[in-house]
């Protein structure tokens, strides 16, 4: 059977609400939430039957029951996920915490886990194992596989939550399903992100963010382009990551693994450019929680804050310059790009910038490509993806990944830890086909197309 040609049939559709509903309330978006356009992101977790304890005598129905019951419980502390996003009188989004519930589908797929083409998630995962969200803030699908395995797929509205928030939610959901004490108690105190008085204008933010109303229509060259963004998943061995880090570091200054990887990817994509004057934009997602710790209030760690606390600084260099640049030089540019945003002052300025422009919606500039761009990509470190903690009572996943085909012309790349916990990475990539093909040609020794040999298929694997 063609590994993408399988059928998913729905066994049951429910709406799961919080078991203890909170009174209906409106949760405003913070200024940092308001920087997110309407975008959904997905996460999926694959469980292999051989990792289940035979003594538990688990049936697919009993596992789905455990997942669903725990979902109703986890929606009590994470109540925004059971709500919906509505517009207020200013035309801005806000969270109506109404306990309208989460769409929950129990499905069956006539394919085995080892046959799933995870290298091509657009055809094997999107809309099949990760649901397309039709309403609300979160949708869940649990799919039985032919081999007795199970896939949990979730789709989140990014305007309500970032990856850190989703990771907290998944960890807590798994803990509740095993009746374990929970690690995280989320809080939603938007007052931690109030602007300064008066808000201060910072020109550096003007270089990173732009009002949607000021973006020109896409140039004809982009409109008629035959290329489009595709998703692929790769596996990178720990020794390759270490090698890139060694080559990117200099004079006793060690670059981080994510900086080294990003610089290598940036340079590799430039290799495919023929017009040396065109630019290649590289954005790096920076989490502001650690940077805003001085805003924390008593007993409230920002590590438990639910919402978006992100900035996306970017740097741009021409194809010609990147081709002639060493990896060390590229990594230095990546480091300085991240460094300028990884401060309390940067996030305070970003909060103020949004305040000065409200209610006009804004977006990060790297998401807006133009005719002068060879490429634009955003790298988001998924190194805190807690895949090995996501045990719902029948072992840890054989595989887990984000799935984020976010549209537009800008690529998105997310490296995550392998379930094997040996330093290997799983990398989700959503790039132009020509750039994916280029990576596989120029860097085939680093980016290995994901296949079943990379799954953690047994307890002792």
UniProtKB/TrEMBL annotation:
One of its GO terms (molecular function) is acyltransferase activity, transferring groups other than amino-acyl groups. The lineage of its organism: Eukaryota, Viridiplantae, Streptophyta, Embryophyta, Tracheophyta. Belongs to the plant acyltransferase family. It holds the Pfam family Transferase. InterPro entries: CAT-like_dom_sf (IPR023213), Plant_Fungal_Acyltransferase (IPR050317). Gene3D superfamilies: Chloramphenicol acetyltransferase-like domain. It comes from the Eukaryota. This is Shikimate O-hydroxycinnamoyltransferase-like.
């Amino acid at each position: 059977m063609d590994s993408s040609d399988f059928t998913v049939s729905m066994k049951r559709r429910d709406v799961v609400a919080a078991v203890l509903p909170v009174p209906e309330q409106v949760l405003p978006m913070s200024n940092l939430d308001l920087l997110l356009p309407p975008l959904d992101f997905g996460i999926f977790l694959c469980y292999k039957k051989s990792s289940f304890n035979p003594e538990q005598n688990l049936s697919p129905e009993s596992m789905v029951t455990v997942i669903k019951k725990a979902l109703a419980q986890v929606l009590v502390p994470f109540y925004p996920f059971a709500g919906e996003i509505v517009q207020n009188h200013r035309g801005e989004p806000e969270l109506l915490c109404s306990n309208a519930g989460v769409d929950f589908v129990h499905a069956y797929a006539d394919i085995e886990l080892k046959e799933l083409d995870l290298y091509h998630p657009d055809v094997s995962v999107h809309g099949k194992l990760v649901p397309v969200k039709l309403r609300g803030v979160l949708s869940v699908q649990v799919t039985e596989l032919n081999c007795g395995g199970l896939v949990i797929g979730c789709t989140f509205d990014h305007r309500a939550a970032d990856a850190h928030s989703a990771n907290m939610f998944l960890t807590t959901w798994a803990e509740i399903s095993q009746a374990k004490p929970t690690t995280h108690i989320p809080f939603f105190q938007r007052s931690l992100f109030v602007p300064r008085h008066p808000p201060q204008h910072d020109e550096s933010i003007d270089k990173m963010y732009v009002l949607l109303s000021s973006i020109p229509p896409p140039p004809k060259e982009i409109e008629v382009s035959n290329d489009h963004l595709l998703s692929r998943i790769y596996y990178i061995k720990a020794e390759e990551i270490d090698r890139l880090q060694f080559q990117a570091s200099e004079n006793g200054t060690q670059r981080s693994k994510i900086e080294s990887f990003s610089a290598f990817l940036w340079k590799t994509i430039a290799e495919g450019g023929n017009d040396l004057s065109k630019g290649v934009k590289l954005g790096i997602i920076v989490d502001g929680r650690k940077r805003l710790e001085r805003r924390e209030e008593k007993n409230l760690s920002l590590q438990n804050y639910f919402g978006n606390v992100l900035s996306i600084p970017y740097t741009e260099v021409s194809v010609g310059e990147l081709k002639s640049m060493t990896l060390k030089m590229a990594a230095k540019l990546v480091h300085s790009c991240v460094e300028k945003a990884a401060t309390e002052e940067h996030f305070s300025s970003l909060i103020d910038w949004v305040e000065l422009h409200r209610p006009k919606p804004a977006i990060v500039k790297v998401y807006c490509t133009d005719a002068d761009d060879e490429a634009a990509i955003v790298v988001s470190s998924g190194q805190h993806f807690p895949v090995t903690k996501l045990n719902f009572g029948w072992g840890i996943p054989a595989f887990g990944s984000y799935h984020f085909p976010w549209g537009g012309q800008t690529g998105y790349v997310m490296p995550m830890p392998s379930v094997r916990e040996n330093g290997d990475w799983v990398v989700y990539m959503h790039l132009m086909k020509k750039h994916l093909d280029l990576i596989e040609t120029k860097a085939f020794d680093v980016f290995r197309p994901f296949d079943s040999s990379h799954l953690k298929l047994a307890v002792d694997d």
